[in-house]
Amino acid sequence: MSSSVEMPRLVKPTCIKLQGFNNLTKTLNFNLYDFCAARTAAERDSYVAFINHNFNRHRIASLLQNIARIIDARVLAASSQDYEPWGASSLLLLSDAAAVPALQAVHLDKSHICAHTYPDFRGEGQVCSFRIDIDISTCGDISPLKALNFMLNAIESDVVVIDYFVRGFTRDEQGKRVYLDHHISSIRDYIEAETLKDYRCRDQQISDANIWQTKMLRTKMKEGDYFRDKVDLNAATTRRALQLIRREMEGVFLGAVT
After folding, report:
1. Active-site positions?
2. Which of helix, strand or coil describes residue 23?
3. b/e per residue, 181-217, with b = 16+ CB within 10 A?
4. Which single residue of 71, 106, 198, 214 could bond 187 by disulfide (Cβ 3.0 to 4.6 Å)?
């Protein structure tokens, strides 16, 4: 993968004039993990090629552009980067796509979406893993929670860790500070039931600090997808490889060696 940097300006750079007072920032962070058998150098190299093709800077930038459309954001600037020997990053700076003078409101100012990939192709030579970290931070009324289901459907993941927190404040019509402008008891409330049925979930929250986390571990494994070539799923070596993959998945989900 060649290394390159690009910094296109998608909108002529101008100063963004803030309309009114809104300093409520909502941040949604995805960590999505994928695993694959790597019993041989050929299996590992095949997975490396797959990741480099599907998660290079162009593919990631396109993914972030789709997120921007879903949350009704206008892209002001973009930057992306490939790394050697593997890995990529992308960043979008945002404003509100619907912000026009007649509305007298700007919902997305000083906002961004960024993504970084973290391949792990070394390890013990039995299992390869890949993580993509995507951070969506918005200001104002629009919530990045709108992008949840798109992300979970766009990237089929074995383990998902989602963090959501709200910072800053806005004010109501009486001038009283508002630290949260929507109801949320769990991130799972915003995830489609059809997706949740494939995962075991664990929630953590510090409600008085406006912090929520949901971890998701895939329970319905498509066993053939963990091998780059067709294998006998009943063979002892295949079952052993699947056990190792499951152990790696459990370790990430629990945050501990299993």
Report:
1. 111, 116, 139
2. coil
3. eeebeebbebbeeeeeeebebeeebeeeeeebbbbbb
4. 214
Class of domain 19-254: alpha beta
Q: Which residue do the tokens 């912090």 mark?
A: 211
pTM of the full predicted structure?
0.84
Q: What is the pLDDT of residue 246?
A: 95
Confidence category of residue 258, pLDDT binned at 50, 70, 90: low
Q: DSSP per residue over 138-201, as a string?
A: EESS--GGGGHHHHHHHS--SEEEEEEEEES-EE-TTS-EES--S--S-GGGGS-HHHHTTEEE
Q: In whole angstroms, give the CA distance from residue 233 to residue 109.
A: 51
Please tell me the total number of residues recorded for the chain in this structure: 258
**pLDDT tens digits for 94-110?**
876 554 443 333 344 56
pLDDT per residue as tens digits for the range 189-221? 999 999 999 999 999 999 889 999 999 999 988
**Chain position carrying tokens 């089929």:** 156
3 state DSSP class of 242: helix
104 Cβ contact list (under 8 Å, min separation 6): 19, 20
Would you state the torsion angle of the CA atoms of residues 13, 19, 21, 24, taken in this order, to the nearest 10 degrees? -50
